[in-house]
Amino acid sequence: MGWAIALHGGAGDIPRSLSPDRRLPREAALRHCLQLGVSALQSHAHPLDVVELVVRELENHPQFNAGKGSVLTTDGTVEMEACIMDGKTMRCGAVSGLTTVVNAVSVARLVMDKTPHIYLGFQGAEAFAREHGLETVDPSHFITPENIERLKQAKEANRVQIDYTQPIKQDEKSEVLAATGGSGDSQIGTVGCVAVDRDGNLATATSTGGLVNKMVGRIGDTPVIGAGTYANSYCAVSATGRGEAVIRATVARDVAALMEYKGLSLQEAAAYVVGERVPQGTAGLVAVSASGEVTMPFNTTGMFRACATEDGYTEIGIWPTEQE
Known about the structure:
Layout: E1 4-12, H1 20-42, H2 47-59, E2 80-86, E3 92-98, H3 104-114, E4 119-121, H4 122-131, H5 145-157, H6 173-179, E5 191-196, E6 202-208, E7 229-231, E8 235-241, H7 243-248, H8 251-262, H9 266-277, E9 283-289, E10 294-295, E11 302-309, E12 314-317
Parallel strand pairs: 3-4
Antiparallel strand pairs: 1-5, 1-11, 2-3, 2-6, 5-6, 7-8, 8-9, 9-10, 11-12
Helix pairs in contact: 1-2, 2-3, 8-9
Subunit structure: Heterotetramer of two alpha and two beta chains arranged as a dimer of alpha/beta heterodimers.
Protein name: beta-aspartyl-peptidase
GO molecular function, one term: beta-aspartyl-peptidase activity
């Protein structure tokens, strides 16, 4: 048994022709956040602190759909969601509808630590964050030119658009349309982290800005315990993809249930859920087990992901490897 960590920056239809200026910053962010988590685990930090630390860092990176990079609602506003869960105690916290808090995952952590509840939303969650001194900014802080362009594209097409992290340039439209079945949609975005320490303590955290042009008040899978985020004594899971599909399949909980009730390994359980429980092209996840196993399956074109284990294994990737 040893520590292990995995993180993701979203799964989706990511063309292999993705230009270096769009790919390299994300790979650098994954590498930086992975090292941050590894250093914390090596310093004997609790996995709960590790996943919060890593997700906060991912939220601060404008290239991902969470925190600073959150996409916009149909009204041109930001509504952020996050969730965190401890596997040993199964304590958890979740938030939705945040508009001014810099790090949504830390509000979720406070809901878990400081209230008798699990889930707070909208004005109540905002007020709670302010009462506890968390950093807040004007909502305009989150509204980037890239996300304004994404919203414009979605409105012109009259659709709710799965998030992507760079605007589609005219000369890139053909490759994006080809990669997304002609819709121009992509799913790059939601961020998450799972970790286990040498004692088998597990934790998970997930954060997102949701969908481009989503209805005001829409809630996705990220803050729903058992859908986008779940941890128990067997494993910790953080999912990404089309939120409605992930909710219907209770993706994160199903991985844990297959391990607990069917005796499947982490890799077997995760592969079954991603391969059989959700439609092709809709989901991915990262997960670790109490014994230090790690897996990062997805049924989309790619998933921004990274992992490391105490025995020296490290992986940073976007598209499937030859082995996969």
